[in-house]
């Protein structure tokens, strides 16, 4: 359902048509993430057709029946581009992995009004950092080609300042301007 005048001009039929969760992170973005993390050891919600499947040391593939939320995240560096239909559990698992010592970056829809963001980003024990890129990411299909921009604004979440700043540098090297926002949370008094 779209507001009048905001309907999409075309309906696409490729693997990332905006109707499912098969939107893959493009290689130049993965390069920036890899730079920030010193390599990507684990992608717990990968797809065999995704570029990250080839650029990551270890993957759990949802389409193969792997439950990346329940499987061990025993890695020093983790990148998560979760199914956007249910981001909450993935953000929480990222927060926990960070608390256990892993470097973690999540690429998620910018939805700061949600409970998931409040719990896993705004109330993170060791803080969180939002890396907001200019423009929308052009996700890729299994053929590796960009098929248009995301239908929602996305951002990166890092739970370590150094990783967030390195990601900003990596994005700049890929020609993408971004800003790092430190999350400062206060408890409500009412």
Short description:
Helix content is 26%, strand content 22%. The chain has 190 residues and is of the alpha/beta class.
Describe the structure.
- This protein is an alpha/beta fold.
- The chain has one domain (27-180): Rossmann fold.
- It is built from five helices and nine strands, in the order H-E-H-E-E-H-E-H-E-E-E-E-H-E.
- The protein has helices spanning 27-37, 51-55, 88-99, 115-122, 161-173; strands at residues 42-46, 58-61, 77-80, 103-109, 129-133, 138-140, 146-149, 154-158, 178-182.
- The longest helix has 13 residues, at 161-173.
Largest sheet: 5 strands, mixed
**Radius of gyration, in angstroms, nearest whole number:** 16 Å
Question: Helix tally?
Answer: 5
With strands numbered from the N-terminus, the spatial order across the biggest sheet is 3-4-8-5-9
Kindly estimate the percentage of residues that lie in beta strands according to DSSP.
15-25%
What structural category arises from helix and sheet content? alpha/beta
CATH architecture: 3-Layer(aba) Sandwich
Count all strands and give the number. Answer: 9
CATH topology: Rossmann fold
Instruction: State the name of the first-level CATH class.
Output: Alpha Beta
Count of spatially separate domains: 1
Helix content: 25-40%
pLDDT averaged residue by residue: 85
List keywords for this structure.
190 residues; alpha/beta; five-stranded mixed beta sheet; two-stranded parallel sheet; disordered N terminus
How are the SSEs placed, and which strands pair?
Layout lengths: L26 H11 L4 E5 L4 H5 L2 E4 L15 E4 L7 H12 L3 E7 L5 H8 L6 E5 L4 E3 L5 E4 L4 E5 L2 H13 L4 E5 L8
Parallel strand pairs: 1-2, 3-4
Antiparallel strand pairs: 4-8, 5-8, 5-9, 6-7
Helix pairs in contact: 1-5, 3-4
